[in-house]
């Protein structure tokens, strides 16, 4: 789906396609990255139910693929799958599945212990991390990579690099090791720290 953004709030964006405003559910981070009036390209999935048609949109085809795989797991609906992608990147999801680490999924709202375990079992071998972490030094490399990614996103959203860098550094100094490696989580916390844009 491609078209100008008419509105973006929370997890819902409206994109104009052929003169019609299409409501699409996205992750909070994705909604924050979209600018009103600017053209957006979303990779979408249409979920059809007896009384409802819902569109879910993603910034990359990789996210859409992971979304579809997650929906194929018993007990994981489209909103839960979107929640997983809001908390973890596709690469982080692949790492967690490869390590059989269901704890990463239990942190997601709406995902219980049984469903978290089902995700790791059902998707085993179906997702491969883009850049597997080395056995040593992974925790020290992750925060810098996370910081660079979040900083780039904030600057792209219009924040001054100096202010954005300070917010990212403050967030990374306060969170635990697991959170430091999550770009979506650090981005959300940094945006919260920066406050409304003037």
From TrEMBL:
GO cellular component, as recorded: cytoplasm; Holliday junction helicase complex; Holliday junction resolvase complex
Binding partners and assembly: Homotetramer. Forms an RuvA(8)-RuvB(12)-Holliday junction (HJ) complex. HJ DNA is sandwiched between 2 RuvA tetramers; dsDNA enters through RuvA and exits via RuvB. An RuvB hexamer assembles on each DNA strand where it exits the tetramer. Each RuvB hexamer is contacted by two RuvA subunits (via domain III) on 2 adjacent RuvB subunits; this complex drives branch migration. In the full resolvosome a probable DNA-RuvA(4)-RuvB(12)-RuvC(2) complex forms which resolves the HJ.
Ranges for region Domain III: 148-198
Recorded domain comment: Has three domains with a flexible linker between the domains II and III and assumes an 'L' shape. Domain III is highly mobile and contacts RuvB.
Location of this chain's protein in the cell: Cytoplasm
Protein name as catalogued: Holliday junction branch migration complex subunit RuvA
Family, as annotated: Belongs to the RuvA family.
Single GO molecular function: hydrolase activity
Top-level lineage group: Bacteria
UniProt organism field: Schumannella luteola
Gene behind the chain: ruvA
Domain Helix-hairpin-helix DNA-binding motif class: 68-87, 103-122
Chief location of this protein within or outside the cell: cytoplasm
Keywords: ATP-binding, Cytoplasm, DNA damage, DNA recombination, DNA repair, DNA-binding, Helicase, Hydrolase, Nucleotide-binding
GO biological process, one term: DNA recombination
Record flagged with keyword Protein biosynthesis: no
Stated role: The RuvA-RuvB-RuvC complex processes Holliday junction (HJ) DNA during genetic recombination and DNA repair, while the RuvA-RuvB complex plays an important role in the rescue of blocked DNA replication forks via replication fork reversal (RFR). RuvA specifically binds to HJ cruciform DNA, conferring on it an open structure. The RuvB hexamer acts as an ATP-dependent pump, pulling dsDNA into and through the RuvAB complex. HJ branch migration allows RuvC to scan DNA until it finds its consensus sequence, where it cleaves and resolves the cruciform DNA.
């Amino acid at each position: 789906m491609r078209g100008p953004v008419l509105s973006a709030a929370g997890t819902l964006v409206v994109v104009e396609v052929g003169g019609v405003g299409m409501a699409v559910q996205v992750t909070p981070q994705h909604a924050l990255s979209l600018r009103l009036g600017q053209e957006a390209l979303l990779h979408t999935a249409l979920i059809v139910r007896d009384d409802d048609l819902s569109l879910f949109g993603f910034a990359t085809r990789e996210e859409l693929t992971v979304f579809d795989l997650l929906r194929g797991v018993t007990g994981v609906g489209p909103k839960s799958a979107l929640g997983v992608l809001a908390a973890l990147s596709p690469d982080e999801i692949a790492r967690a599945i490869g390590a059989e680490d269901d704890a990463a999924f239990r942190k997601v709202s709406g995902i219980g212990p049984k469903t978290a375990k089902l995700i790791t079992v059902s998707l085993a071998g179906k997702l491969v991390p883009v850049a597997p972490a080395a056995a040593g030094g992974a925790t020290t490399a992750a925060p810098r990579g996370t910081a660079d990614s979040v900083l780039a996103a904030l600057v792209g959203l219009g924040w001054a690099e100096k202010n954005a860098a300070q917010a990212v550094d403050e967030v990374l100094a306060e969170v635990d090791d697991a959170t430091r490696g999550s770009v979506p989580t650090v981005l959300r916390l940094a945006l919260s720290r920066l406050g409304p844009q003037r």
